[in-house]
């Protein structure tokens, strides 16, 4: 009888009503082996490589990414002095649903800007489509990415939060790296458009 078979037999043996010496005689083993067999616990089966980071480290990585959405995985690794690669840090962020995404661009608005826009929207919410079709919108401006560094920027954010202020890149109308452009969009009846071009020349 092998050691493994002896251990299994000792574990299953009703020792509550038996003395160690009696069990020794029946199985043919030492008292030390009986004691060790009763203390023995099978280790859980593991597959693959051991995880490189602990639960505590994972929480620190995620916390830093939430505080600084534009931080890179390499910067997190360096700041926290982690003994793992930037790729591992990136994997932990993806597991926490904080993948790197291109940020949405939004105008840098002050409080009164927001109030005026809301006021306009509420005043015109019931306008019929007929009125909107006769409006010509034009705009010519210089768009500047606020804090633009010249490199493509990514941001880490939870799904469905792309328009939250902390996850957007602000644009302003002055200074910095600029892009000039003119845009026009309109919804006009055919006769209205022809009338406009007749009076003002071709567009």
UniProtKB/TrEMBL annotation:
GO BP terms in the entry: DNA integration; DNA transposition
The GO terms this record gives for MF are: DNA binding
- Give residue ranges for domain Transposase Tc1-like: 58-126
| Gene3D superfamilies in alphabetical order | Ribonuclease H-like superfamily/Ribonuclease H (3.30.420.10)
Give the source's domain of life in one word: Eukaryota
Check the record and name the Pfam families matching this protein: HTH_Tnp_Tc3_2
Q: This protein is called what?
A: Transposase Tc1-like domain-containing protein
Please tell me the species this chain comes from: Synaphobranchus kaupii (Kaup's arrowtooth eel)
